[in-house]
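Continuing the series of single-chain predictions for the mutant panel. This is the parent chain; the variants come on the following pages.
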Amino acid sequence: MIPVRDDIPSSRIPFVNISLIVINVIVFVFELTLTERQLQRFFHQFAVQPYEYLLYFSPYNQGALTLTDLVLPLFTSMFLHGGWMHIIGNMLYLWIFGDNVEDRMGHVKYLVFYLLCGVLASGAHILSDPTSRIPSLGASGAIAGVLGAYICLYPHARVLVLVPVLLFFLTAEVPAWIFLGIWILQNFASGVATLGVETAQSGGTAWWAHIGGFVVGTVLVWAFARRIPPRRVVYYTDWYD
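Parent structure:
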């Protein structure tokens, strides 16, 4: 299922969400200007490489890796993408679901929430495959956190989706909890299937970053989202002739 839109309007302009999308697109355009060799060096410098975190605390490090080498990629990696489908898919989900989460959190809190989910999602990926030398990149972990927040805040929202059937696409509206529930179950099944598999990351998808980001989002949302007070019911007791 491919999401097209939801039915929850925003009450304010989602400046942060739009800015995140713009930054991701600008960085991707920059990537397109690089040669293949330059791009590989760029990814190795700014993407997360799990083995480096294991190496840093080993006696073999001897100053080759600094703390900055480990911390910086946790943030920069979430603005890198490995191809057109990678960035289009991520930005589509961020555009559809991010504005409503920002609406409930406010601009500053949403930015902090997004970055924190991305960092912790990378942490989940590192723990799932600490010896991997394949650079991990993409906004998927942070966006998974946004999806986790969305399913908590708007479980009964309706999501318009495209459903591929043979050579055609059918449209349908499904509750957010069903659409996002299917999404996380698919990721969880794929993540479990890669455990203990030597080529777990060869497909290019860090499943446990998605899972970790989603779980973090469902937990942190309650600390970041503002509560909507219940509607006040006014009873009129005065009668007029």
